[in-house]
Design brief:
Blueprint lengths: L1 H14 L14 E3 L1 H11 L1 H21 L5 E10 L4 E3 L2 E4 L2 E14 L1 H68 L5 H35 L6 E3 L22 H18 L8 E12 L8 E10 L6 H67 L5 H35 L6
Parallel strand pairs: 1-6
Antiparallel strand pairs: 2-5, 3-4, 5-7, 7-8
Helix pairs in contact: 2-4, 3-4, 4-5, 4-6, 4-8, 6-7, 7-8
């Protein structure tokens, strides 16, 4: 009797693993599908809002640059008070107190350098819009990968739970045989050890699931951890054509292309800084009371031609702009090479992953069948539980390899969609 109590205490101590989640820890606040996670990330993430503000800022700069095509109108009201009126021979030429109202309307008749700045500002608006698309892609990919991480962690947890249940059944059977006098103490200890190990793996998997849910909640800007709802439906990528048209679907390639075109426009517009500018202004004025030599209502027109004769900064400015253009071209070349490499790698990954999934499924099925046969033989007394434990470990490893292969295939298909610019749609 004492021996049975001692064994019961040892078994309870071996299985006494602290819980992963305490009662104070927050549970997942909601459950979302793959498409919902991607959509919410692209609609609610703060980074998307920052990109939208960048577009508004560029639009404001464009409106400032376009102001050159509109006249500038100003008004002035003034009152002049002298110590005494001015005059001669009894005539007042300058009253002691005189109020004046005047306005000026000016317009640049010729200002090619300023007009060029308006087109350059329009290029920056287009760049900001494409940059927002690039940010949206990064946010969507981050949310998709976080969702896949949750699915992968849940699959590992399910495998760990099934192996824990199998180990518990074997431990119960070994313990029952020992108490009936038909088993051995060694088999009972081995089964207890395998059960404790399996329970520890369950807790590790639970921790991975919780971390994945927290990461998914952050990715979609939720208030807490988010649970994944089922396996994602990742469509197969449309094969690219022999041309490089697929590159135009990638926001990063289009972004660097737009930057090169904008920098090239700035370089080409440098010569306009050497051209003269012509401006015109019209100023009507009304004073009261009028002076002896000054009527109450007057106006004047003003025309100005300004010709740049020497400006030592223009040459340096052109060299700086050329350097900026060359830098943008180098960046475009780098991102194009990277895009082609990502496509080749993603295509190879999909092909290899499909083969790995097929072979891992076959291996997992064979390992499960071997475990079933080994358990039958053990219950029939034809073998010891050493073979059963080894078969359990082999089956668990094969099932984990299968799950990892399937998760890798989903990730490879997602990477291929991203490389082709087909995600998010």
């Amino acid at each position: 009797m004492f021996e049975r109590v001692r064994r019961a205490i040892m078994l309870a101590a071996a299985l006494a693993v602290p819980p992963l989640v305490s009662a104070a820890d927050p549970a997942p606040t909601e459950r979302v599908s793959f498409d919902e996670a991607v959509q919410r990330a692209t609609l609610r993430h703060p980074t998307i809002g920052e990109a939208a503000q960048a577009i508004l800022r560029a639009q404001g700069l464009l409106d400032q640059a376009r102001a050159v095509f509109r006249p500038l109108v100003t008004g002035v009201a003034s009152e002049t008070i002298l110590d005494a009126a001015r005059g001669f021979a009894g005539n007042i030429t300058q009253p002691r107190t005189q109020a004046a109202l005047n306005g000026t309307a000016s317009y640049p008749l010729l200002a090619l350098s300023r007009w060029a700045q308006a087109k350059q500002a329009a290029d920056q608006v287009a760049i900001a819009r494409i940059s927002a698309e690039d940010v949206r892609r990064d946010v969507a990919v981050n949310a998709a990968e976080a969702y896949l991480a949750v699915i992968a962690a849940e699959r590992q947890r399910d495998i760990a739970v099934r192996n824990r249940d199998t180990a518990k059944a074997l431990s119960d059977y070994a313990h029952t045989r020992l108490e009936a006098g038909q088993g051995s103490r060694l088999n009972d200890v081995r089964a207890t050890q395998e059960l404790a190990t399996s329970e520890g793996l369950v807790q590790v998997a639970e921790l991975a699931v919780r971390r994945g849910q927290e990461a998914l909640g952050v990715a979609i800007f939720a208030d807490g951890p988010v649970e994944a709802s089922g396996d994602p439906d990742i469509p197969r990528a449309t094969p690219p054509s022999d041309t490089d048209l697929w590159l135009s679907r990638r926001p990063d390639v289009r972004l660097f292309t737009a930057e090169v075109q904008a920098a090239d426009r700035v370089v080409r517009d440098t010569w306009k800084s050497w051209l003269p500018t012509v401006g015109a202004a019209f100023t009507p004025q009304y004073v009261t009371p009028k002076g002896f030599f000054e009527p109450a209502g007057t106006w004047r027109a003003f025309f100005q031609l300004q010709v740049p004769i020497y400006d030592g900064t223009l040459g340096a400015t052109r060299r700086i702009r050329i350097a900026d253009r060359e830098t943008a071209q180098l960046r475009l070349q780098a991102v194009t090479v990277q895009a082609r490499s990502e496509l080749r790698t993603a295509q190879e990954a999909v092909t290899r992953s499909e083969q790995i999934v097929a072979t891992s499924r076959e291996a997992a099925a064979s390992a499960a069948e071997a475990l079933r046969i080994t358990e039958i033989a053990y219950r029939a007394g034809a073998t010891t539980n050493i073979e059963v434990v080894q078969a359990q470990q082999t089956a668990r490893n094969a099932e984990i390899a299968q799950a990892l292969a399937e998760d890798g295939l989903r990730q490879a298909r997602l990477d291929l969609l991203v490389a082709l610019g087909q995600f998010p749609q």
